[in-house]
Amino acid sequence: MPMAQLKALARGRAWAFSDFELKDTVGKGTFSRVRVVKIKGASDRTPIALKILRKGDVIRLKQVEHVKAEKQIMSMIEHPFIVNLLGAFQDDKRLFMMLEYVNGGELFSYLRREGRLPNDHVRFYSGEIVLVFGYLHNLHIIYRDLKPENVLLDSDGHVKLTDFGFAKVVEERTWTLCGTPEYLAPEVIQSKGHGKGVDWWALGILLFEMLAGYPPFYDENPFGIYNKVLQGRVDFPRHFDMKAKDLVKKLLTPDRTKRIGCLKPGVDDIKKHKWYKGTDWDLLMARGIQKAQRHRHHQFRRRSKRAFRNSTPPSMPKKRKQRADQTKLRLLYCFLSIEPCLRLCFFGSFGQISRLD
Description:
The protein is an alpha+beta fold and 357 residues long. Helix content is 35%, strand content 13%. Helix 5 (119-138) packs antiparallel against helix 7 and helix 7 (197-212) runs antiparallel to helix 9.
């Protein structure tokens, strides 16, 4: 079903959890899980992703502002390369977010299986992310949580950015420390205040990781990662494309006032970079460009152990570990405790309720 029809269906009635036929669990976090569901009795059986959040855990972990920001910002946006919000509702114990279902898996899984990705695949994925960031930044929204785990792929191989819990509307700068250690920009670590430039820094990290098979700043300890980020030394593997290397260097410029994407031309500077030469941005936006090889999550090819070993730096484990929810838990102190009256105000935005927990 087209997105416009899905949204019209979702917003055309009051929903209850009992309205859905439950299918597989496709995601699980500290205080939420995501279930694939279908609407009971609907003529169209298009699957929907239902994000279920437990109110008690949201309050206990001081994540009210986190969840509030995610719901508010996702209500503001709609883009072909974002997991779009269809609607939201609640009951006494839980909050529910109805989301577009994306069935191609995570970029993280693809990258882990392949070791590193071909240049044309990286250009394709990163180009679609550039379009998302250009769209968000035009609305003064910074995303702040780019990483392979948050880049989903649809059945045609197109990008779908998910998890807007750290996103924020920012006119100039904000000082909140949040994100994933390997992807944090220097200005975030140094508490200098940050803005849209943190997304372009994170794009540079992701570009490097897709092309090299590992992040440019790595350590077993988050503080070791921070030290390496502040030192700013990036060691490129020999196979690294020279045009991509130039773009990564410009994205990983420590001085945010000189970082590509942060200058007067904004996103156009990145679109015109030689790495993207020949890219038809309008056609890409219209989903008219297909990745070189379509894939589904279960069809990813495994590279040989030798190929993966050759793409891994000596200081990094051969079997790359997934950055789990502990990353966000380490940064929970960035969120303030919310008073009960504000909790009521927030939960009320999902619909009337009789109690909070």
